[in-house]
Amino acid sequence: MTHAHASRRASAPALRFLLQVLLIAALASLPWFAEKYYVQFVARIMIMGILAMSLDLLLGYTGLVSFGHAAFYGVAAYVLAMLTPAYQAAGFWTSFPIAVIGAATSALIIGFFVVRTHGIYFIMVTLAFAQMLFFLFHDTRLAGGNDGIYIDVRPDARILGWKPFNLERYDHVYLLVLVLFVLVWLFLRVLLRSRFGHVLAGIRVNEHRMRSLGFETFRYKLACFTIAGALAGIAGYLSAVQFGVVNPEFMGWHQSAAVMMMVILGGMGTLAGPVLGAAAWMLLELGFQSLPVAGSIDLGKHWQLWMGGFIVLTALLLPSGLLGAWSSLARQVSARRGAGPQTTANPMASAGKGRPLDRQP
Amino acid sequence: MNSASTRAVVVAPAGHSAPALETRSLTRRFGGLTAVNGVSIRVESGTVHAVIGPNGAGKSTLVNLLSGDLAPSHGEIILEGTDITRLGPPQRSLRGLGRSYQKTNVFLPLSVFENARLAAQSRAGSSLRFFRPVLREGAINRQADEAIEAAGLSARRDRIVATLSHGEQRQVEIAMALATAPRVLLLDEPLAGMGAEESSGIVRLLSRLRERHAILLVEHDMDAVFSLADTLTVMVNGTVLETGSPASIRASAAVQAAYLGSEDTHHD
Ligand SMILES: Nc1ncnc2c1ncn2[C@@H]1O[C@H](COP(=O)(O)OP(=O)(O)OP(=O)(O)O)[C@@H](O)[C@H]1O
Ligand SMILES: [Mg+2]
User: Fold this and answer.
1) Chain B nearest-CA residue for A200
2) Chain B, nearest residue to A191 by Cα
3) Contact assessment for residue B98 and residue B122, using Cβ atoms and an 8 Å cutoff
């Protein structure tokens, strides 16, 4: 390996770190120059980003195709709604942990049953449990039924008389979302490099071999399902705070499918992928919805049709998602610049698969 | 999945009288076919016990029963004096039973080192540890590197296993089995598909390992078998035809007739 080659390699993480810090700084400054609408839109992207990353922990990192992930997102949102008294605020410092623990507990209970199943059955059973929860909230008067339930006053963040932030203000909601988004990202990054993260990778690749190596994989899959549920709960809580209303659609299969699309669209098995996917999804949704009326057809009203077409195209043309396409483009460019062959040429390097586990995501 | 609550039962005092691994009339049926039929063998610590027999004799099925990959139709498996018949593969592995697979069964998209390290990590207590990077777990990384070294793969340490030759992937199997530091080692045709050089390296490794392990070796390479084995069991159609020293097996008329006489037609 030449010296220049080695130093380029050493400086890449530093550059990445710098870029990440700049990105976070740019995001943090957004409320000072952007209008409310855009600030809230970016907050929604980050909330969906948290949800998509949490699903990717199951889908891309562990190989568990959960088709009911929105259930835990919805549970946390409902917990906040039910903890909020009429025309009064719930306490942020109590309702937030309770909502996340509520999501984690439901994931633990549901996980106890679903994590035993494999492949197509896992998909089916996760969907079935999520639908049970959906109908529980949809068909009973537990929490407003079909119409959902309003959060009249946003949670109050006062601690001992001091109020660090005010969730009635949209810019404070945005900053809270940003902080939690960064924390979830960092948490997953650390998690994936730990013993636990390596076990998840082993399970994704070859669960049978993991068992014969002495790993009781049920335990690890259940822990993973629970953690993913808790993180989805963070997203659900934030959504409820932002929208001020919670309805059964939060946990509907449309929502579960949408998150899954975001993960696949962006690139499974990475953290940047799902976030990119969430952003692309939301921008596309916005773009397609604002299409004009052409002749007798309202193009915008049929946005789901265009979205479907777009998904099909990406699946066909970019099998490892937007991020995968981006990194293979970057590889081609650097190869043309004569960066030399990678020493550990890895045919599965796209979208993070096969990347050294110590450096994942 | 075996329930975690199943308790192993101590059926014999774990003195040196108990063999490292023992089966009692172990039987496994697949529908109408009895792949393993009333097999009782004893594998002593510090020895290599080879199991030979023609294709389809039931050797791999026997290994799968021992490792817990398959459940027996009846019979018992006793590991160091403890009945482990009802335990699942993870618990057997943690009790010191390691194995390799005839059909390469590794983590193809991961590097050689990562394969061995997952194996080593299984010995380091619970992996419900979420924060410390594995990269900084010195003991785990060292154990993985030692296993890679022993299996003769140091030059391939950072290669993705999918990019290795078939023979090298077989060596990864061995490295993984070693990295779990087993006391009893089940090797299902470890040499199949290896070149002569790797093969003799593994034979040397096994004769070194013999001292402190009990090794059950299934192998078609008769040179390797006769140079390593302290005891030989010949299986035919699921049953044990004969068990004895290499010399007595070589001399046995029944074995000659059933198997050794047509040895070279049975290579995979
Ligand atoms: N899962 C299974 N289901 C049905 N039959 C099986 C199964 N596994 C093995 N068998 C059958 O059991 C018999 C023994 O197979 P086994 O793989 O144990 O033989 P072997 O001695 O390992 O042969 P080889 O030397 O070819 O590896 C064969 O007839 C095989 O077809
Ligand atoms: Mg076999």
Assistant:
1) B127
2) B130
3) no
